[in-house]
């Protein structure tokens, strides 16, 4: 990360030498002050895009309309954006117009929260017109300017408010929270895809239990069909009840619910595993979960991954009889794959999450052993190929082959049959 900052400073200095102002801005300044590694380093400058392109002829014009070009330096990429303001917001979701401004303070004024509205020069001096440093110290999330106006301009900021409060464990300043509540109906205007990206970042970092609790505190899931299916919500309300109910103060609103919820969410896990835990906590059927993820524009690969994990879990516990677990697990792994099995192990890594879902620790350990001992997990692992089976049977190949091989695979995986061509052929004829 040090090398990336150094390369960034060189970009600032190059812009400075050509007579332009240039700063690090936004999330990277915030995270640097918090001592956290920033996800990406953004630069704002008084130079217009043409000047930046003149200085860096191989820069990529990634967002010229918005004044953004992407500069590459020492192998790192920096989005360099001309100081700008936004105007219009007649539709509550995107500015009608952007225009370039001369002063970095005007650029900072368009940003959402004070902690996101700071700039840092090449010499390390911080430009902080809205008290972002004080709010960082006080661990408070506060809108820049008048909250209701700012949330009204772009209602996505409501979800961002929840995301940043949860990621850093910050309290939401009371007038800012009042602005969230006053403007929440405008969230309808925001594209699901943008909301999905924010919810996903929310699940990936910090305290997703707190994030979900804040979303519930603002009644966002119910009002906007955020992807929290009905049974899920009912279950969350139950957890809330069990945890003693939410208190009324807007900022502390989530404390009790949060505790209840956080039990269900693996703390050190990827976003996909947390989503899976969230859906399981709400006893959402896999189809419901997949529907929800589609609405959020999740990539198909992720939807399948999370869906497979949910299905594997459900198939394991479809009988309460522990005698059936080995069989259920084995067939589940054949159906959903060993990647889903590894995800399941990771999801129930923590004793707290196991307790919340009632997964015995011995079962997790046993399941790991069962997976490792599987003699075959795909029909390709069988010692008999489909064409060999067709030849032995003297029948033309067809869909029957896949069905027959799958039956043999199950017997092999369950340890009922040896994985050699002879045994497989014999078992096939015995079963056919
Ligand atoms: P992260 O580390 O999660 O990416 P970030 O602060 O960098 O957090 P981004 O979404 O990457 O968040 O946005 C970069 C910066 O642009 C923010 O810090 C903020 O100053 C500004 N910004 C982004 N989205 C909005 C918005 N909807 N309204 C106002 N300002 C915004
Ligand atoms: Mg960012």
TrEMBL record:
Annotated CCA-adding enzyme C-terminal domain residues: 272-425
Necessary cofactors: Mg(2+)
Source superkingdom: Bacteria
Domain tRNA nucleotidyltransferase/poly(A) polymerase RNA and SrmB- binding: 169-220
UniProt-recorded Gene Ontology molecular function terms: metal ion binding; nucleotide binding; nucleotidyltransferase activity; tRNA binding
Keywords: Magnesium, Metal-binding, Nucleotide-binding, Nucleotidyltransferase, RNA-binding, Transferase, tRNA processing
Pfam families linked to this entry: PolyA_pol (PF01743), PolyA_pol_RNAbd (PF12627), tRNA_NucTran2_2 (PF13735)
InterPro entries in the record: Bact_CCA-adding_enz_type3_sf (IPR050264), CCA-adding_enz_C (IPR032810), NT_sf (IPR043519), PolA_pol_head_dom (IPR002646), PolyA_RNA-bd (IPR032828)
The keyword tRNA processing is assigned to this record: yes
GO biological process: tRNA processing
CDD domains assigned to the protein according to its UniProt record, in alphabetical order: NT_ClassII-CCAase
Every Poly A polymerase head domain range: 22-142
PANTHER family per the UniProt record, alphabetical: CCA TRNA NUCLEOTIDYLTRANSFERASE 1, MITOCHONDRIAL
Family membership: Belongs to the tRNA nucleotidyltransferase/poly(A) polymerase family.
Name of the protein in question: [cytidine(C)-cytidine(C)-adenosine (A)]-adding enzyme
Native organism: Cohnella ginsengisoli
Higher taxonomy: Bacteria, Bacillati, Bacillota, Bacilli, Bacillales
